Amino acid sequence: MNKGKELLKILQENYEIETAQDLSSAIKDLFKDSLQEMMNAEFESSMGYSKYDKKIDKTNYRNGTSKKTLKSEFGEFEFSTPRDRNGEFDPKIVPKNKRDVSGIEDKIISLYGRGLSTREINEQIQDLYGIEVSATMVSNITDQILPKIKEWQNRPLNSIYPIVFIDAVHFSVREENTVVKKAAYIVLGVTDEGEKDILGIWIGENETAKFWLSVFNDLKQRGVKDILIMCSDGLTGIKQAIETAYPNTIQQRCIVHMIRNSVRFVYYKDMKSFCNDLKTIYTSKNEKEGYEQLQKVKTKWQNKYPTSLKNWEENWDAICPFFSYSEDLRKIMYTTNTIESLNRCFRKYTKTKAVFPTDESLMKCLYLATQNIMKKWTSRYRNWDMILGELSIMFDGRI
C-alpha cells in the first residue's frame, strides 16, 4: 500500500469524511497534531530527557507551555510551545516569534514585489487563505527583506566591468507631509562574461560630484577595481567623480539618453520619422560620417524642432568614442533593450503606487522588482567572445 492510501485509511478510520469540507477539517487536525508532536519531540531532544524520566540529575526543568495562534494553509489553530525554566529552548520547527507556517508571508512579499497594492494583496490572501491583511501587516511582513536588501547592496562585486550604465528613474515619495520627486539611480554592469547585473540602487541624493564619488567609492570598496567604459547621461558632477575614482575609464555619453532628450518635445506624428533620422547618426560607419549625418538631420528638422539636436552638437566630443567600436559593441551601447527595458520593468512593478510613504518602502519595491527582473536575464550578449577580444585589444592589459 502506498503512502497516500495509508494516509487516506488513517483519515477514514478516525474521521467521518463525507464531503470535501470534512476532508479539509481532517487534514487540518492531522497537520496540527503532527506539528505539535514534532515540537514536543524537538523539546524533549533539547532537554536531554523524557518527560517522565526521574533517574537523571536535572540542571533544567520543564516550565509549562505558552500558547499562540498559528496561521496555516488549513486555517488558524491554537498551538502550544513548551518552555524550560532556564529559557534555553530555541525551537526550530516553529520559531518563538513565528505565527505563520503557511507561506502567507512569502506570498505577500511576492505580491508586493510584483507591484500589487495593499487592497489587491488583501483580496488575493483572502481568496487563498481566508485571512485579512492590513496595510500595517503588509509593511511589517515586507520589512523582513530589509536585511536582505542591505546584504545585496553591500555584496562583493567583480574586479572589472567592461561596460557600466548609469540611469535614473523618478518616483513620488512622501517626505515631511509633502510629496516630492526622488530619483532612484540604477547602476547596471556588464560582466566580462557578457552578462547583465544590477550593481546597486541609490535613492534621493542630489546630483553632485560628492554624491557620485560616494557611489563610485562604494563600488570600489565592494571590489570594483576597473571600469572600461562608463555610459551615462550628463548627470551633474559625474564627470569629475569618474575622473577621480576611475581615471582610466572612458566616459561615453549614453546614446539612449541622447535619443530620449532629443525626442522629448517631438510631436507624436513626427516621432517615427525623427527617430529614423537620428538612427542614421549613431549607426554611421565612423565619426566623420556621423557628424555629416548630424548636420543633415539638423537641416531637415531645425525649423520645426530647433533645440532637439542641440545636445548632440554640444556633446559631440563625448559621443565620438562610440564610433571607434565595432557594430556588435555599439549595439550594446545604443540599443534600448538594456536601459529602456529595465525602466519599463520598474514602472510596471511600481505603477500601482502613485506615492511611496518612505524611501524605505520605495527601496523594498525596487529591490523585489530587481530580483524578478534579473531572473529573466539568463543569456549573455550576442557575439560576446568577439566583443571581449576587441576590448582586450583596445584596453590592453586591463582585461
Distance between the termini: 62 Å
Structural class: alpha/beta
Largest sheet: 5 strands, mixed
Number of strands: 7
In round numbers, the mean pLDDT is: 83
Give the overall shape: elongated
Number of helices: 17
Radius of gyration: 29 Å
Strand order of the largest sheet: 5-4-3-6-7
Share of residues in helices:
40-55%
Summarize the structure in words.
The protein contains 17 helices and seven strands. It has helices at 3-14, 20-47, 104-113, 118-129, 135-142, 146-153, 209-221, 238-245, 255-262, 268-282, 287-301, 310-314, 316-319, 327-334, 336-350, 359-375, 384-394, and strands at residues 62-72, 75-84, 160-175, 178-190, 196-203, 226-232, 250-253. The strands form two sheets. A five-stranded mixed beta sheet has the order 5-4-3-6-7, with helices on both faces. Strands 1-2 form a two-stranded antiparallel ribbon. Helix 7 (209-221) runs parallel beside helix 8 (238-245) and helix 10 (268-282) packs antiparallel against helix 11. The radius of gyration is 29 Å and the shape is elongated. 23% of the residues are buried. The model has no long low-confidence stretch (mean pLDDT 83).
